[in-house]
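Researcher: Batch entry, complex prediction.
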Amino acid sequence: MSAHQVEDRGLLRFLTCGSVDDGKSTLIGRLLFDTKAILADTLTAIERTSNKRGLTAVDLSLLTDGLQAEREQGITIDVAYRYFSTGTRKYIIADAPGHEQYTRNMFTAASTANLAIILIDARKGVLTQTRRHSYLAKLVGIPHLLVAVNKMDLVDYDQATYNQIVADYKAFAEQIGLSDVRFIPLSALNGDMIVDRGERLDWYDGPTLIDILESAPAAHTEQAESFRFPVQYVCRPQASDNPELHDYRGFMGRVEAGEIKVGDSVTVLPNGLTTKVKDIQLYGASLDKAIHEQSVTLLLEDEIDISRGDMIVNSDELPAQTKQIDAVVCWLSETPLSPARTYWLRHTTREVKAKVAVIAHRVDINSLENEPATTLAMNDIARLTLKLAQPIFADNYEASRATGAFIIIDESTNNTVGAGMIVG
Amino acid sequence: MSTLTKQTLSHLDWLESEAIHIMREVAGQCSNPVLLFSGGKDSICMLRLAEKAFRPGKFPFPLMHIDTGHNYKEVVEFRDKRAAELGERLIVRSVEDSMKRGTVVLKHENESRNKHQSVTLLEAIEEFGFDACIGGARRDEEKARAKERIMSFRDEFGQWDPKNQRPELWNLYNARSHKGENIRAFPISNWTEMDVWQYIEREGLELPSIYFAHTRPVVMRQGAIVPVNVPLTNGELTNLPKAGEEIIDLQVRFRTVGDISCTAPVQSDADTVEKIVLETATTTITERGATRLDDQTSDASMEQRKKEGYF
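Model: Structure tokens for the complex:
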């Protein structure tokens, strides 16, 4: 470690929800700008573009302007990823467009986020869109929600306006069972309460946005989870000229939930055999344990036939081995779901054929009411039952994100057409 | 929020772990992948990640470099040395061979060959039947890349369609493709230039000498530092100065290394990785902005090249 290295608080992935009108792009631009992630030449480039568009001030939202098509239409179409670092923590922002027709993009961006910033325009208060974003954030299991009441500059930094929005939101949050919500007033345009406190929000004594991000837990969950290790690849270097490696069988993968120590009892699925962990390796080194999200190689005490798609799990807490799952699915494709067709379902490192047994209901994401459905179109969210050709080793999504999630792939185009979360 | 804080990985360990996971997914899902290795700093990190992903086994893919014929001698030599040390197979395919075949036609003799790498790459993909190419591109490099998937689908013409990308959720990657199509996989998508240098420092990775401050003849051309009289591997000099240009000896280092005709160095006295990390933390110019002459032609030039099959 070199002398200039400081405390490492890991990495936080967060999502910003809102539309251009809420000042989402400006907020991201402001975060990047105030944390010095924007360098001079990029700034010069957006200055040039701002001038070209006849703007008098530099439009920070241009920093997040991506593709040619998006620039032409002046809207964000696809999820973009942005990076900044405070020196103590690295951040990945998933920037998802806010319009209703982009539910699938928000769903996608939310799937890897541990915190969501829900933007509200202080002049408009809690809107249908706010409810939709909050519902989706909860649905995809983002553990920490931050409601940012933006554009405080346009309501004269009025505390009563802010308090009213907070009260309205809390009433709604209770309705849909949201807990752990925090609130902050800010002006992305002027930079108040983002990195610097500014001077116009003196009545607010909570932390700034960056302080909240710095102190948010980096782990997806603070609960203890059962050990889950889907096998990605089997290492058998028999051909090596090192005779010691002739019997080497390393099972390579990432700890998707829980943790594992040398000597722990594990069960291999689907064959159900139980053994102990002999060694945990990473590039020649032996580790005592491996934690959540760590990629390692496991060596086991007994010789068991294991291949990609199998799962090594804690013997005391087995996942369900099942050929039928209930799930909440978001349809991602322009081609509607066909209950007559067979799809590929990818769950952890396992791929099985799947068919819809029944669509229980579709959720109207604006009213949050359930409604009957016989098919699903792009951006639809529905609860359904799937039949599988082979078993998967499933946990409830709420208990374990990585082993409760799956994607649906169209057999003919190979496109990813749906995403689902197991609920039973 | 509970007060009990779970143990989590440091940011570099997390990025490393994610990259290893992605490489293993490519190896598990694709039947004939290849790892692109240029001898540049990002691909040097990729080799360490591949070692961490697959040792004590061999890599489940060969290494490949698309050589424009205009690469820095130090980098080409490093490329060969590193591949030999690892004991892994290195395939080199050259833009000059595509020129001989007539599939690459330069507009004029001095045109940059950088964008023509796409043609040679597609020819090599066809020759070997690769169904996935693993590359060291990062999303922070350029705004078209910010929206690219980690597993990015290319049709049989190698084209990227930014408006029609496969959604990518959780860490469930879809690397399926039909014959003739292929996947470009980017394990260090989420890394920044700073992360790369910190990783090089932590892992003690060796780099070609031109990444460190050294003195070389340059001219100033349209605000950029342009190296001149650069020796190629065959001893020939390239990037000759234009008439009337004043040659100066300047202390420089390269932040990115590519085709000689379009890679410019920056002025620097950072001669160790530690100094480079410090310099990267305080620089005011982006990596490609400072050093890639080819990205400045238009706001969307990277996007355009990628649509045509470029990495």
